[in-house]
């Protein structure tokens, strides 16, 4: 197993040592936690509600509210047996893999993908099976290729739609086919819905988890880190059929006992004020996406890209570059902008860089200006 940190974190660590760097690297939203959330958390603190452990699955009040919110989306999950409040998405993913994988079980990842998927599967003794998406036409899943990678050892597939790093969204047809394949071949569909609310079309994308016939197959992971700008609070939740949740709960208990209670109150406040907060925040991200996308269009001599339909990343291909990790470190040293090499997201990401528009408008404008200067004056010949 690889014990080095992912390139995203290595780039961020180096960036912190360079004065005046603008980071468009790690997906950390610039927005502060909302005052509606802070006020409720302060209230919980002042009323001595946050000092003690909660039940391992989370505060009853939180799980009950989550269950009600899920029902509004046609997802029927019992607060008693089918929901666990977690320390963010990454703990939910880790607890899931540790609970459900046996040594050598295969888990399919569509690449490019969030680097921690592979790392977590390996940590849990599983075997990652990569299925590359086709960049042509906007990161399309070739279902025949997926079918070829399904074997008797396939335990799960991880889906992240809207996607990190590509910003692409899987179609209803693709998702339904995956659901049917999962039923037929008896594997799980782990839906990492961390970017659920980041979509830039008029309507929310189709979500397989709303289709109750697939409930036994689905494990859904939700996080408050990105959409509610609570990445430092480490809070999220997981829901699935009782059979899976009971196993995941025992691992979650061994790992962290319960999610930080103060953060559970933050998550609860976020859900209670979901509409107001998300309307406000998503409007801001739409604007940031446009600013970054327009800047990239003006760099068409150097980059090729498609506009993301969701999440908050652009994933342009750098024309003519082969050593993109070297290039990213060179950009960092010379232009003082941190961006992530696409190789970090698996073979499908080769030749690309990832830029996050979770950052403030000023940072995006200045960062893109520096990038333009870099391309103009360095010609990014191999570094
Ligand atoms: N899944 C994806 C696709 C992510 O991009 C991230 C964070 N960048 C996570 C899970 C984990 O996030 P957190 O633990 O903060 O919820």
Based on the model shown, name its key terms.
single chain; about 375 residues; alpha/beta; Aspartate Aminotransferase, domain 1; Aspartate Aminotransferase, domain 2; 7-stranded mixed β-sheet; 3-stranded antiparallel β-sheet; 14 strands; globular; binds 4'-deoxy-4'-aminopyridoxal-5'-phosphate
Any chance you could write out the topology, listing elements then pairs?
Blueprint: H1 7-16, E1 22-23, H2 35-46, H3 60-72, E2 83-86, H4 88-100, E3 106-111, H5 116-123, E4 127-132, H6 143-149, E5 154-159, H7 172-185, E6 188-192, E7 218-223, E8 236-240, H8 242-256, H9 261-272, H10 274-297, E9 303-304, E10 313-314, E11 317-318, H11 324-335, E12 337-338, E13 340-341, E14 353-356, H12 361-378
Parallel strand pairs: 1-12, 3-4, 3-5, 5-6, 6-7
Antiparallel strand pairs: 2-8, 7-8, 9-11, 10-14, 13-14
The structure holds 4'-deoxy-4'-aminopyridoxal-5'-phosphate.
Residues 27, 88-90, 114, 160, 164, 192, 194, 223, 225, 231, 236 line the site of 4'-deoxy-4'-aminopyridoxal-5'-phosphate.
Task: Put the structure in a nutshell.
This protein has helices at residues 7-16, 35-46, 60-72, 88-100, 116-123, 143-149, 172-185, 242-256, 261-272, 274-297, 324-335, 361-378; strands spanning 22-23, 83-86, 106-111, 127-132, 154-159, 188-192, 218-223, 236-240, 303-304, 313-314, 317-318, 337-338, 340-341, 353-356.
